[in-house]
Amino acid sequence: MQVGARTGDKRLHNHKLPVDIVTADALRRSGYGELPKVLNHLVSSFTYEFATIDDLTDHVRPFSLNGLKGDQVLVLINGKRVHQGAVIDVNDSQNLGSSSVDLNLIPLEAIERIEILRDDASAQYGSDAIAGVINIVLKNKPVNEAIVTTGQRQAGDGELFSGSYNYGNETLFVSLEYKHKSHSNTSGLDRRDYYFNGDARNGDYRVTHIYGDPDAQSLSLTFNGQNFFDNNHLYAQGKLVYKESEAAGFFSETFG
Fold first, then answer.
1. What's the rounded Cα separation, in Å, for the pair 253 and 256?
2. Quick one: average pLDDT of 114-133?
3. Backbone φ and ψ of 153, nearest 5°
4. Number of domains in the chain
5. Is 105 strand, coil or helix?
6. In this predicted model, what pLDDT tens digit does every residue of 49-62 receive, in sequence order?
C-alpha cells in the first residue's frame, strides 16, 4: 500500500491527499551523494541545514519537514518504521533538544522511490507523524550493476567518492556501498588580534579552525526480499552500516 492510502488502491489520482514522489532517476540526476541533501534540493517542505561545531550533531545532522523537528516525522522503509538515532541535537542546531533518523545511512542506489505525505498524516499514522511521513521504498527488481560517483566542492575540498554494487532478481535485491567524504572548510581568516597593541604579530591573519562537513566514511549493506517461496507473506528487509566520522570542534594551529 502506498503511503497515505487507506485502501489497497495505489493509483495516485484516487488519493485524497497530495503525496510527493521522488523517483530513483531524480535521486541519481541530482548530483548529490547524500539522501538528505537530495531531498533538501527537490522537496520544498524538507529542510536540511548546515551544522558545524555542534558536538555529535556534526556527525548526524538533523532535518525538518513542514518546519517541524525531525522527531515529529515518521520515517518508514517499505512501510515499516525506522527508529530514531541516539544523538540529541545540541547548541544552535536546527532541532535543538530532539533526535531524528540518520537518513545518510540509506544508500541512494538502493532506493526505488520516496513517498512524502505532508498533510493530515497524524490522522492516519498517529502522533509520531505530526510533521508528515517519509516512506522510502527499496528496489526489488532484476539488476546487476556497479556504480562509481566522484566529485568535490568548487573550492577544491570536500572530495566525495562513492562506489556501490547492486544485484537483484525477482525475489531479492542487495546493495553494497562504500562512501568516503573528506572534510570541507568554509572558514575565513581569523581577524582577531591575540597580542597587545603594537605587537608586530597582530595582523598575521590565518585560518585557525575548520567550519564545514566532517571527514566521514561508511560501509553499508542493504537488502530487500519479497515473495519468498512464492508466498507474498514472507519478506525480509534491513541494513547494516559501519560509519566513522571525524569533525572539528576546537581551534587548531595546523591551518595557516
1. 7
2. 90
3. -70, 160
4. 1
5. helix
6. 777 777 788 888 88
